[in-house]
Please model this.
Amino acid sequence: MDAERPRFDAELRKRSKGSIGWTLLRFLSDQVFSFIVFVMLARLLTRAEIGAFAVIAITAEAFRIISTAGLLQTIARRRELTPEFLDTIHRSQQAFAILSCGIIVLLARPIAELMGAPGIALPLAVQSFVLPLASLGVTHMALRLREFGHRTTALRSVVSGLVGGGAAIAAAFWGAGIWALVIQRLVSEAIGVVLSRRSYDWTPGWAFAWPILRGNLMLNVSLIYVQLVFLATVRIQEMVIGAGIGLAAVGIYRTAWRTVELISRGAIQPFTTVATQTLARVKNDRVELARAYRWMIARAAAISFPALVGFGALAPVAVPFVFGAKWHEAGELAQVFAFMALPFTLNFFASPSLSALGAGRSLIALSTTQLVLSAILTLLALPYGLFAIAVSYVVRAYSTVPMQIWLLRRASGIGPRTTFAAVGAPLAASTVMGVALVFGLRALQSAGVGAPMILLALVPFGAALYAAILLIVSAEWRAMIAGPANRFRKAFA
Model:
């Protein structure tokens, strides 16, 4: 019987590793193309226009969550897929997407007037058509992901990112302004739909069943709630800043956050995307579950910690250099957000881990606590300006880490020792690296060295220092590097 139980064995580890690699490529391509467009817009648009765009993004993302209704995640969780089940999920998701699009079109002008930015009403309404467009291919991609087909999603993202990003950059050069991102989303999604439908041989039918829809909607209420609350937790600061300070301040805050978000998503989400499928397969064996969890979070931390800490140390120079001198305040804010390395990584794993374990109530409790604390601390910090608001978000993130660890232990038996054993070495190595980079930055600035040379000197120095310290303090990472090195040496001996 034990032999038949799912295990985090060599085969599952291999499939997870391959999927993570392709997902990493996918996220890197997505984020790189988005970042290039964002840099172009940041240089071409005013800070107020960037702030206005942030409002469009918040609205679009909220309705994207509503339009999917958590239905696509049921494809990954369900043991057996019937034609009736798939048709019901696909057609329901399409209906929700069309309904959400209609609501955004109706609310576009009131939202624009509420934020004091009437110019965003039409772009917001037009971008809403991405939702019904995307619904044509999301079920096909969910079926592909169920089979660890992350290679397909990576290739799809690369192609759609190239075409959509190229269209957006061209539009920005031609003076399209805020419309450049709308063009990017529409073009990218159109390409993505074509590639998604070609990636999986399945033709939707009309075998719709209300009982299937009702049952899955009830199961997904907590997931929809958690996703919306998580979005609100991350973006509530921008809404408060817009109402209390102005859209220009939103632009500064959003630019700082976008750079940190780019790094965190690229470094962490490839692991968390695969985690749902991997952890769901071993959730009934706590020993195997702990092994899989530690394996994934250790590797995510090894990438995310040095990336976030290193960027934070150099942000006061890097952000103005990349985005332009008018964004120097965003560089100072980004330095504050770099302290989010630990809670960022743990929080990104909380949702897929608890979701795979069926701990919906725990997810609701955690996300609600995070939102309430974020709202309270943001409002308290508002009179003191953007820097105080950024600090309040970091404080909130660390204050909910103990609750997050406790909920994970209650649901899975994975205690704090497992978590911190996995992330301890990367945390120590990145901390030393960060301190060294701060002193190095100050020394070079005092010597009158320019931003390009500072980055050219300190980025490789930081990477080498981090790698050296990680190998010194961690026997696990030394063994991990030694294995491939020995195989390489034997192959060429």
Residues 239-493 form one domain. The two ends are 43 Å apart (CA to CA). The chain is about 85% helix and 0% strand. The mean pLDDT is 80.
